[in-house]
Design goal:
There is one protein chain. The protein is mainly beta. It is built from six helices and 46 strands. The strands form nine sheets. It has a 25-stranded antiparallel beta sheet that branches. Strands 4-10-11-8-9 form a five-stranded mixed beta sheet. Strand 8 (166-169) and strand 9 form a beta hairpin. The longest helix is centred in the first third of the chain and has 20 residues, at 19-38. It is globular. The protein starts with a strand and ends with a strand.
Length: 784
């Protein structure tokens, strides 16, 4: 079994049908979107009681995937939209729905939803990714390796990980948590929602046992203008951002924006610098009959250092003596930082369209596309060339191409004012072409391109792997007793053909996954709601998982989960509260072991059970103060014994605490505003956790903290909202391990360690993410 490189996409990086077919796919996608923007849908005219455009569905689906917009079918707008047009009245409505300074939002869906809104996002540093924004939600433990936001991170959620979650942007599959900064700049994020125990039937996710995280991008402004900000901070961080808004273009109803950012930062541990350039482009058009179309495109180019994640021994050496474990600045070393880098270019497109039709019908079409190329470089030791000189080697994980293209089509029918029925189809094709070349290290210590013939020693094995998904789904939403009772019922049947081709041959398998769902919500009065959610979810091996397996190894079985959730919500003029009890049963549990240099190896650990509860509570502003608190209790146990191939023994793991599943996660936040001044502080606690299947390696509980403060000045000349803010992380400078890089069988599992100028040596047990040291970022910004 080969090592598995963590995928860029929600499933994986993926490869090619040939460049002509890619170009054709992109051209067709762009053409369909432009046609949608150019030609209004021919549909029934709305009544004078037409449902507002910003109403959303109860399943927390993308804004464009709505039920038909007719007076007879328009339920009360209990669900929320943070992306309505930016007017004074809408801004006021947003704040009325928020608590804890935007760290919590009033929700009405019949399942758990945890959301941070624009009010909170605007107080955080512009370098924040979605991971930084959601780290105080009760069901999540988030770990990030750097303070500049360029290296992403990991999520633990109710005993599962981000590899078990669907990670979306505007409802389309996007980059994995390790590469989350590729998706969208934080200035263009309207809200981030997590449904920890639920995945809507119409969402294109192949890994949703841990739920879904969805980033909603901004709605283009009705008026011409823009936003500019500059940031500077610890570790030589510098960042520039500019967004230009078109406003309505003529009288077409089309409006859009274009933004560009450039980020540079030094690695906080060891030597090296990280670079990121990013573009976001958005368009939107709304028609009076309720039809709308949205287009979002992002491009990302990044070069960042692949960190050396320390073993337990390295961590304690750093903690007690200050001896670091990062890359070296010695150009003669094989572990020179320029020989340990991730180079990647990514393009992402999401283009949902909602069309209102006659006879109480509507159609939602949501095409999406992502494509990327790049490589990871790592030390390959040294060798003697033909002249007798000793030269360093570079090993590569090279993805010549990652490609994922898909679409979701859904037809909605309002049977009557109480009942809306939907039927839909999801198609996705994902493929990766990857190889493992070896080259000489350049004389200046840097890694050359793996395609440069002057340095290449071996082109390495080449593999192609991928999958094709076809899925049918039905969904019905019924509302009775003046919309007090909501019943969502759905069924999704997924059919997958997965394949893997290497030097030795080709293998493929056909898999199916039945995914039933039932959610019931009852609004007791205008303040209280109870809900029940039951569903099945799955996780199939990603294209990259397959690409790292020899074809002689059987394709792993799908992981399958059955989940139940019972909750209660309350909100009034003073507080918002939410309590959710949950129970998961997982079979064929897939976990991933980190083996260094951004490479992972999947293995199966049998069955697992997780049960517990989440509590969230937030207050409306009281004399300017808006407190927030959340806590999760989790009892997760391993239900199977597992064979350890390193020790050639059966681990008696049945009944032990599940790996990477802390019993307690707690958060506290406090926001204060007075006139132009604002501040937000947060504290996060994660309890002790096991990081090995055998339970013989653990990490203790830890605390992290953040602080944001700033001032909104009065408009001056062209500057409509001049603002200065400071953001701090790790105020106490604590040196703590915030999570494991993956699962291991036991503390005696061997791995290869590269640290500074030391020769490669064998380490044992897991490797860890460590909280970056104290950082401060200052930002000056204004709208214009």
């Amino acid at each position: 079994m080969k090592d598995n490189h963590q995928s860029r996409g929600s499933g994986s990086r993926s490869g090619s049908l040939g460049y002509r077919r890619q170009l054709l796919a992109v051209t067709c996608l762009a053409g369909s979107v432009l046609a949608a923007f150019a030609t209004p849908a021919r549909a029934a005219q709305p009544s004078k009681h037409h449902t507002p455009r910003h109403q959303t569905s109860s399943r927390n689906t993308p804004k464009t995937a709505r039920t038909p917009s007719r007076a007879t079918a328009a339920p009360r707008a209990h669900a929320l939209d943070a992306s309505a047009a930016e007017t004074v009245s809408v801004t006021s409505s947003r704040r009325a729905l928020n608590g804890g300074g935007g760290m919590m939002r009033v929700e009405t869906a019949p399942h758990a939803v945890q959301t941070v809104t624009k009010e909170f996002i605007d107080m955080r540093a512009p370098t924040s990714t979605a991971l930084d924004l959601i780290q105080n939600l009760p069901s999540l433990n988030v770990t990030t390796p750097d303070s500049s936001g360029m290296e992403g991170g990991q999520i633990q959620s109710r005993g599962l990980t981000d590899l078990d979650m669907g990670l979306l942007v505007d409802g389309a599959p996007a980059a994995a948590a390790k590469y989350l900064s590729e998706n969208v700049d934080s200035e263009n994020v309207e809200s981030v929602s997590v449904t920890p125990g639920s995945s809507a039937t119409d969402l294109p996710v192949m890994s949703a046992a841990g739920g879904v995280m969805n980033e909603e991008t901004r709605t283009p402004s009705q008026k011409r203008g823009g936003l500019i900000d500059f940031s500077y901070g610890t570790n030589n961080l510098s960042r520039e951002f500019l967004r230009l808004e078109s406003g309505e273009i003529g009288h077409s109803g089309v409006r859009g924006y274009f933004s560009f950012s450039n980020t540079h930062a030094r690695s906080w541990m060891g030597a090296g610098t990280n670079q990121r350039k990013h573009i976001d482009f958005g368009l939107q058009k709304d028609w009076h009959n309720g039809s709308n179309a949205k287009f979002f495109l992002s491009w990302n180019s990044a070069d960042f250092i692949i960190d050396n994640y320390p073993t337990s021994d390295q961590f304690f050496r750093y903690k007690h003596t200050g001896q670091g474990y990062g890359r070296t600045d010695d150009r003669k070393s094989n572990n020179y930082w320029g020989n340990n880098n991730d180079h990647w270019n990514q393009i992402f497109i999401s283009a949902p369209v909602h069309i209102a039709l006659p006879s109480r019908l509507s159609l939602d079409i949501h095409p999406y596309f992502s494509f990327g190329q790049g490589w990871d470089a790592s030390p390959g030791g040294t060798t003697t060339d033909a002249t007798g000189a000793t030269r360093g080697l570079t090993n590569y994980f090279l993805q010549n191409e990652y490609r994922s293209v898909g679409t979701v089509a859904k037809l909605n029918w309002e049977i009557d004012r109480h009942n809306t029925f939907s039927v839909g189809y999801w198609y996705e094709n994902t493929q990766t072409i990857q190889s493992y070349p070896t080259s000489y290290q350049m004389a200046d210590g840097n890694a050359p391109s793996p395609n440069w013939a002057a340095y290449q020693i071996s082109a390495g094995d080449k593999q192609t792997a991928g999958y094709e998904i076809q899925s049918l789904f039905v969904h019905d939403t019924a509302k009775y007793f003046n919309d007090h009772l909501t019943v969502d019922a759905g069924f999704k049947f997924v059919m997958t053909n997965i394949w893997n081709k290497d030097y030795y041959g080709r293998q493929e398998a056909n898999r199916t996954a039945p995914l039933p769902q039932l959610s019931i919500g009852y609004r007791i009065d205008n303040h209280s709601q109870v809900y029940l959610n039951v569903e099945g979810d799955y996780r199939q091996p990603s294209a990259v998982d397959l690409g790292w397996l020899y074809t002689s190894v059987a394709i792993p079985k799908n992981q399958y989960s059955i989940k139940e959730e019972l909750g209660y919500r309350y909100h009034d003029d003073h507080i918002i509260a939410d309590v959710a009890f949950f129970n998961y049963n997982v079979t064929n549990r897939i976990v991933d072991q980190y083996v260094g240099m951004n490479s992972y190896k999947p293995f199966n650990i049998g069955s697992q059970q997780m049960r517990g509860f989440d509590v969230m509570v937030a207050a409306r502003p009281i004399h300017g103060f808006s407190p927030y608190a959340s806590v999760e209790y989790l009892h997760a146990s391993q239900d199977s014994n597992v064979f350890d191939p390193y020790l050639n023994t059966m681990l008696h793991s049945k009944g032990t605490q599940a790996v990477m599943a802390p019993h307690v996660i707690a958060n506290f936040g406090l926001t204060y505003t007075y006139k132009g001044f604002f501040a937000n502080g947060s504290v996060h606690y994660t309890g002790p956790q096991s990081v090995s299947i055998a339970g013989d390696q653990r990490i203790p509980g830890y605390v992290t903290d953040t602080l944001s403060m700033g001032y909104h000045f009065k408009p001056f000349m062209f500057a409509q909202s001049p603002t200065f803010r400071l953001n701090f992380t790790n105020l106490t400078g604590s040196i703590v391990r915030t999570g494991a890089m993956g699962a291991v069988y036991s503390a005696r599992d061997p791995s290869t360690v590269h640290s500074g100028n030391l020769a490669p040596y064998t380490g044992y047990g897991n490797s860890f993410m460590v909280s970056p040291r104290f950082t401060m970022t200052g930002t000056v910004s204004t709208a214009f």
